């Protein structure tokens, strides 16, 4: 009798054959494994998008360079933008959401595990389909292979007339497929957060990360749907003789712009609200203080969610809208600065009076605060429509949105990687390699994107494959390219750190940061069922209550 | 310094924008300085020091007064910025069109600019000529912006902000340059393969120079018989080649059979400083290279190589040089 369980335990400890492991990963419906799949998928595409960015930066390193042809350059910026938004940033955000939300609200999985797997594989196939264009897009003479219409693919450049062949179709279908995946995951996140919280976790006691994922999920449902509709309309135009965007037959190019940006601007918040979520979890733990002004943080998040649905046309100040429309979108755009400002001040309030420990996750969060401040302020400049008439479609706007997406979003995603790596892998990352990554990336980021504002102010439009000397742009472009190499080096150190630490890092234990939310109560990595017994909470920081029975949070909330 | 610096404004719309820009920069700069200082102070002052004990700091959950303050103050700042911005939008977009203003229709084409002066009966390409406007004789130029194909954008930073040229969606803008000279810019809405070399050149002239230019441009091309030069034999052979190949499908030379509208009007080609939408200086050598194979200079441009033999290439180039 006593021998049998031991034998069972031994066989389960033996590593199963590779094929079986792969099969398990492919057929998994576990939210943690799907979260990790999302993240690994995104990291692979991060490398592709990074290579495309590097090719562009080498081409622009000096005037009249001919490293690549204009056709290749145009494909590079189209693929870079599409990849980074749809197949890097969104999968990363979804990956962390998938992994963390059930753990943080004390659930054993997402509400719809099979929908979860379906959504991930849709996104993955969308990404692979987009890249298949490099091989499968060739065909019609002169039509090229990968899409080259820009990541927002303005009509009528996407019509059969101006984009013959199938390159544009690869773009359209890839985004349609991955869009269904995004909507599926969003529905799943929202349902999970609304229905699957553990006993005692009222909405007011939910970790901010869960609140922010709830708002993000809502935004995805509202924003990706019009994009998918527009993709279908574009296909109808291209193959079924529709005229939605066909300007030669009375269609409207401006209609496409509205469709795209009614997706495109909430999309920025789809990405940045989870970034806020990471900062809102990490900053308190490393400052050793509760988040300052939890109710206001929730209100600001929901406020941003609503306002972000009404600002889209600030991407269109130069397309010739009436002065009244322009004025409205100035007001809505500037209004969003208020809740965003509140957040920055609340993080500041959290750090104030704390004992800040500068581990790598906190370093990335602090850099995020400074950089997001600048990104917000350059955003206000462009929110002032007349100023935007000069700045839009120039390198200034390229610098601005990279400040948001890299300086804001990617920095907090790096913070999240280092913060939750011990939970997901069971091992600590290398602190010194993490610091090297941080400094390489900070230097590279600032060399590239600080200086990128300047050629924009000096009249350099985006999406040009070459430029003439004598416009005052040469030196700035050289510096920008040098920065890109620092960033690439930082990414390599980061990836090496992840791999090395996965095999050789110190054993982390279940709660290496002395943190306060539920994911730290279970083992690292957590078992498939997450929690042996379903937890019950009485406050926003259940582990604080546990560690400080003399001074629990629930007395004050 | 850069000839396309937005801070070197030289026309009312650009000037008005510059004024707003300085105000917005001042406000955001002040916010930046205050918040940056607060953040920097916080991370230095409240960092953990080696000798610290392990006790947790005092837990503070929030403060209604403080949070109200940092809500109300941003609201007030946003209101001020909004009102200042709304005023400038109205002053630029709703400006009245004074008597005597010049009208130009700008038509964006894949990778070049067509300019038509409807009241003055002039058609030209790639180099826009407009009169200077001073307080004593305000002569602003009002541009109607159209597109023949995809989206483009007209951006000459020292004269005005950009406005897009969108097919089936006429737009307008205006400029009133205060000084004479050459103002540069380029297409700033991605329009296809050669978006990068769709350059803008605006020549601002005194009223007299401008009137002379208009007078000269409104004439048809001089008949070959009037050109008495050693070149005329070759040039008139060039004209025959030009008029019997596909050239005339796309190009116009006023007063001849060439009446195409897809490419730039060549009637007064030699009065322009550049060819290929500003990408090349207008020299005999460059003209010849361009006619031989445009794609070697602007890959992806829509003008095909006409596969002319060397003598024919010389002849067509010579003909082009007579179009003054």
Features:
heterodimer; A: 557 residues; mainly alpha; Cytochrome C Oxidase, Chain A; B: 324 residues; alpha+beta; Immunoglobulin-like; 2 domains; five-stranded mixed sheet; three-stranded mixed sheet; 8 helices; 12 strands
Plain-language structure description:
The complex is a heterodimer of chains A (557) and B (324). By secondary structure, chain A is an all-alpha fold. Chain A has a single domain (29-555), classed as Cytochrome c oxidase-like, subunit I domain (Cytochrome C Oxidase, Chain A, Up-down Bundle). In chain A, 67% of the residues lie in helices and 0% in strands. Chain A has 17 helices and no strands. Chain A has helices at residues 3-13, 18-27, 31-59, 70-104, 113-136, 167-195, 208-239, 253-287, 294-307, 323-335, 337-351, 360-383, 385-391, 395-425, 431-457, 474-504, 542-547. In chain A, helix 4 crosses helix 14, helix 8 packs parallel to helix 11 (337-351) and helix 8 (253-287) packs antiparallel against helix 12 (360-383). The longest helix of chain A is centred in the N-terminal third of the chain and has 35 residues, at 70-104. Chain A is globular. Chain A starts with a helix and ends in a 10-residue tail after the last helix. The model of chain A is unreliable at 1-12 (pLDDT under 50). Chain B folds into 2 domains: 1-44 and 64-218, Immunoglobulin-like (Sandwich), CATH 2.60.40.420; 224-321, Immunoglobulin-like. Chain B contains 8 helices and 12 strands. In chain B, helix 4 packs across helix 8 and helix 6 crosses helix 8 (310-321). By secondary structure, chain B is an alpha+beta fold. A 5-stranded mixed beta sheet of chain B has the order 3-2-1-5-8. In chain B, strands 4-10-9 form a 3-stranded mixed beta sheet. Chain B has helices spanning 12-45, 64-93, 207-217, 232-244, 247-250, 284-292, 294-297, 310-321; strands at 102-109, 112-117, 122-125, 127-131, 141-147, 152-154, 163-165, 171-175, 181-186, 199-205, 274-275, 280-281. The model of chain B has no long low-confidence stretch (mean pLDDT 94). Chain B starts with 11 loop residues before the first helix and ends with a helix. The chains are: A mainly alpha (557), B alpha+beta (324). At the A-B interface, helix 4, helix 8, helix 9, helix 10 and helix 11 of A face helix 1, helix 2 and strand 9 of B.
């Amino acid at each position: 009798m006593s021998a049998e369980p031991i034998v069972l335990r031994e066989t389960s400890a033996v590593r199963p054959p590779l094929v079986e492991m792969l099969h398990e990963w492919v057929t998994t419906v576990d939210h943690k494994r799907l979260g990790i799949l999302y993240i690994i998928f995104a990291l692979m595409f991060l490398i592709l998008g990074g290579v495309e960015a590097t090719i562009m930066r080498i081409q622009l390193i000096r005037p009249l360079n001919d490293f690549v042809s204009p056709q290749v350059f145009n494909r590079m910026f189209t693929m870079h933008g599409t990849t980074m938004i749809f197949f890097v940033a969104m999968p990363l955000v979804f990956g962390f959401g998938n992994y963390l939300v059930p753990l943080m609200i004390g659930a054993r999985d997402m509400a719809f595990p099979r929908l979860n797997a379906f959504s991930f594989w849709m996104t993955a196939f969308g990404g692979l389909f987009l890249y298949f264009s490099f091989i499968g897009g060739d065909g019609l003479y002169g039509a090229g292979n990968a899409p080259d219409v820009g990541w927002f693919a303005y009509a009528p450049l996407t019509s059969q007339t101006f984009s013959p062949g199938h390159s544009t179709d690869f773009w359209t279908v890839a985004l349609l497929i991955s869009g269904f995946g995004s909507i599926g995951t969003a529905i799943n996140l929202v349902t999970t957060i609304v229905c699957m919280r553990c006993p005692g976790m009222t909405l007011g006691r939910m970790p901010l990360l869960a609140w922010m994922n709830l708002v993000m999920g809502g935004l995805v449902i509202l924003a990706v749907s019009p994009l998918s509709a527009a993709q279908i309309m574009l296909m109808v135009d291209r193959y079924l003789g529709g005229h939605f965007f066909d300007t030669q037959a009375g269609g409207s190019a401006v209609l496409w712009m509205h469709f795209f940006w009614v997706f495109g601007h909430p999309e920025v918040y789809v990405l940045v609200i989870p970034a806020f979520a990471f900062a809102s979890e990490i900053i308190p733990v490393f400052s050793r203080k509760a988040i300052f002004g939890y109710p206001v943080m929730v209100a600001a998040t929901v406020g941003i969610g609503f306002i972000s649905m009404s600002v889209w046309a600030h991407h269109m100040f130069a397309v010739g809208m009436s002065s009244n429309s322009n004025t409205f979108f100035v007001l809505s755009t500037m209004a969003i600065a208020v809740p965003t400002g509140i957040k920055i001040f609340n993080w500041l309030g959290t750090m104030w009076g704390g004992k800040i420990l500068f581990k790598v996750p906190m370093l990335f969060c602090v850099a995020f605060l400074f950089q997001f401040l600048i990104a917000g302020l350059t955003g206000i400049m462009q929110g002032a429509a007349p100023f935007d008439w000069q700045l839009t479609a120039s390198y200034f706007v390229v610098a601005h949105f990279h400040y948001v997406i890299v300086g804001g979003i990617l920095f907090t995603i790096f913070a999240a990687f280092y913060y939750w790596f011990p939970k997901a892998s069971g091992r600590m990352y290398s602190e010194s390699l993490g610091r090297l990554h941080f400094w390489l990336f900070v230097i590279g980021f600032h060399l590239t994107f600080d200086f990128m504002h300047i050629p924009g102010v000096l009249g350099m439009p985006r999406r040009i494959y070459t430029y003439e000397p004598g416009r005052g742009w040469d030196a700035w472009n050289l510096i920008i390219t040098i920065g890109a190499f620092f960033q690439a080096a930082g990414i390599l150190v980061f990836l090496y750190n992840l791999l090395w630490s996965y095999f050789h890092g110190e054993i982390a234990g279940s709660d290496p940061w002395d943190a306060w939310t539920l994911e730290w109560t279970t083992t690292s990595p957590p078992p498939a069922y997450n929690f042996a017994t379903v937890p019950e909470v009485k406050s926003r920081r259940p582990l604080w209550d546990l560690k400080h029975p003399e001074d629990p949070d629930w007395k004050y909330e | 310094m850069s000839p396309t610096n937005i801070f070197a404004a030289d026309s009312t719309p650009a000037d008005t924008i510059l004024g707003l820009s300085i105000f917005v920069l001042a406000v955001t700069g002040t916010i930046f300085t205050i918040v940056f200082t607060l953040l920097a102070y916080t991370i230095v002052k409240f960092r953990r020091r080696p000798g610290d004990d392990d006790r947790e700091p005092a837990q503070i959950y929030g403060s209604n007064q403080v949070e109200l303050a940092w809500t109300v103050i941003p609201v007030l700042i946003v209101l001020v910025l909004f009102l200042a911005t709304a005023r400038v939008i109205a002053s630029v977009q709703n400006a009245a069109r004074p008597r005597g203003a010049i009208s130009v229709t700008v038509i964006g084409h894949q990778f070049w600019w067509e300019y038509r002066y409807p009241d003055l009966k002039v058609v030209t390409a790639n180099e826009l000529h407009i009169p200077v406007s001073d307080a004593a004789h305000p002569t602003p130029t009002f541009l109607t912006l159209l597109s023949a194909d995809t989206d483009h954008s007209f951006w000459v930073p020292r004269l005005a902000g950009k406005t897009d040229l969108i097919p089936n969606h006429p737009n307008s803008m205006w400029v009133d340059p205060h000084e004479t000279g050459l103002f540069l810019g380029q297409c700033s809405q991605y329009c296809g393969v050669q978006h990068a070399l769709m350059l803008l050149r605006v020549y601002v002239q005194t009223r007299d120079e401008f009137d002379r230019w208009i007078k000269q441009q409104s004439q048809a091309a001089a008949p070959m018989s009037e050109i008495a030069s050693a070149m005329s034999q070759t040039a008139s052979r060039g004209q025959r080649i030009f008029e019997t190949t596909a050239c005339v499908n796309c190009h116009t030379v006023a007063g001849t059979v060439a009446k195409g509208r897809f490419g730039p009007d060549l009637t007064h080609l030699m009065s322009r400083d550049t060819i290929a939408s500003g990408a090349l200086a207008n020299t005999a050598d460059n003209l010849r290279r361009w006619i031989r194979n445009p794609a070697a200079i602007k890959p992806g441009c829509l003008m095909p190589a006409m596969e002319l033999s060397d003598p024919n290439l010389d002849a067509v180039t010579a003909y082009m040089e007579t179009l003054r």
